[in-house]
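We modelled the chain as a single entity of 127 amino acids. Its sequence is:
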Amino acid sequence: MKYVYLVTLLILVEYLIMGYLVSKARVRFKVKAPAVTGHPEFERYFRVQQNTIEQLVVVLPAMWIFGLMLNPLWAAVIGFVFVLGRVYYAYGYIKTGGGRHYGFMIGMYATIALLVGAMIGTLTAFF
């Protein structure tokens, strides 16, 4: 499970970096808290962070269950693919607004794979 722990930490660090980028964008584009709208570029940074936290609700428990019930190395590998997908998503969204599709899909496929693996591992434990 040490690799799952490592990827969990990478996911959390990635999220914290996104939060930091939002705070820098807030200053750069002069969007005072608690406002979350006002400048389109700021809003892209903010949406990257918000969408990422929405994904973490599913990906983290799925990765842990997959790792505990099926295979920790594969859980970590797929979790790392999620991390890479989020980087690609963030870059595409922040730079163009419309370039987020492929990064989002990479992360989503990784999440689905982790969820399916977690389900398979859990169900096989019953039989």
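As a brief sanity check on the tokenised model: The longest helix spans residues 40-69. Helices lie at 2-28, 40-69, 72-96, 101-126.
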